[in-house]
Amino acid sequence: MSKKKFEELDLMDNFLVLALASDLEGGPAYGRLLAEGLLHEKVAHVRVHAEKIIPGSDEIGRGIRMDVEMQSFSHKPEENELPDKVYDFEPHHKNADNLFKRSRFNQAKIDAQNLYSGERDFNRLPDLCVINILDYDPFGKGQTKYHFHNMCEEDTTIPYPDGLDFYYFITTASDGEDSELSALLKYIANSREENATTDLTKQLHKYVTKVKTSPEERYRYMTWGEYIDFETMDAKAEARKEGLAEGLAEGRIESKREDIIEALTELETVPNSILQQINSSTDIEQLRKWHKIAISVDNISAFEEKM
Question: Which of 25, 53, 228, 260 has the greatest number of beta carbons closer than 10 A?
Fold first, then answer.
């Protein structure tokens, strides 16, 4: 399958979503606007992670890749503070029969990393909202939105406050009862200026335009490989593709290390202690943060102080 032209990318396309979510200003705005537009929820303080990898529990356990994770807080959080709520935004182009069990598995992995070892109070587990944005209707009922949560089958009035919600938003449906939602989904599916018809979509389009007018992002897209489909009906094909994905992730980590070291070398000689720290990190989010610091400081001491 050939790639779209850079200008034709929309918010169902992996590259544009990751580029937008990785932007220091655009990432938090993207998460807030989706939470407001899709769920009518306003969030105060957020952390946004693009393409977050949660590894398996051991060498044979399967990990996951979250497209966009947004952590929300009612106040400005400390560095290692757990969020009040986690939003997992997942756009899907492909009709996958295993979507529902995939969502179940992803939910388990996300929850497992959001409670510290030794914690006895499970009320500290953040609420989780898994949001799938689809260009097909897996339920075939013509709805714009499908919302699932746990309840008592015998008496649905009994509350079951486990803090878990699954949403499926369908970009190809039209909901006359919520024109704002329909406008947002139309813009997500076709992210053009003419489809930015509401205040919310106009705000979103501002950040999309920032990405689409970036020469750096255009160059990155020119070298962007075909999207790797992590899920397939054929088990052998899945194993092969997961191996390719793992190699791609390792390549990104190594490339980001080289970017950091190159930026620091232009300032002055890099101490071995810092080189070792950079080369030992396997956290792509941490490496991205270090790279942004490296290209913004004037000397090694400033970089070390901000690491």
Answer: 260
Residue 115: CB atoms within 10 A of its CB come to: 15
Domain ranges of the chain: 6-222, 235-306
Structure confidence at residue 96 (pLDDT): 60
Closest CA to 46 of 91, 9, 68, 77: 77
pTM summary value: 0.70
Residue 55 burial (CB < 10 Å; 0-12/13-18/19+)? middle
Three-class DSSP labels, the chain? CCCCCHHHCCCCCHHHHHHHHHCCCHHHHHHHHHHHHHHCCCCCEEEEEEEEEECCCCCCCCCEEEEEEEEEECCCCCCCCCCCEEEEEEEECCCCCCHHHHHHHHHHHHHHCCCCCCCCCHHHCCEEEEEEEECCCCCCCCCCEEEECCCCCCCCCCCCCCCEEEEEEECCCCCCCCHHHHHHHHHHHCCCHHHCCCHHHHHHHHHHHHHHCCHHHHHHHHCCCCCCCCCCCCHHHHHHHHHHHHHHHHHHHHHHHHHHHHHHHCCCCCCHHHHHHHHHCCCHHHHHHHHHHHCCCCCHHHHHHHC
Angle of the 26-39 helix axis to the 14-22 helix axis, nearest 10: 120
CA distance 18 to 4: 16
Rounded to 10°, the helix 26-39/199-212 angle is 150
223-249: per-residue pLDDT in tens? 765 443 343 344 444 444 445 455 556
Q: What is the pLDDT of residues 77-115, one digit of tens each?
A: 988 889 999 999 999 877 666 889 989 998 998 998 888
The token pair at 119 is 């914690």
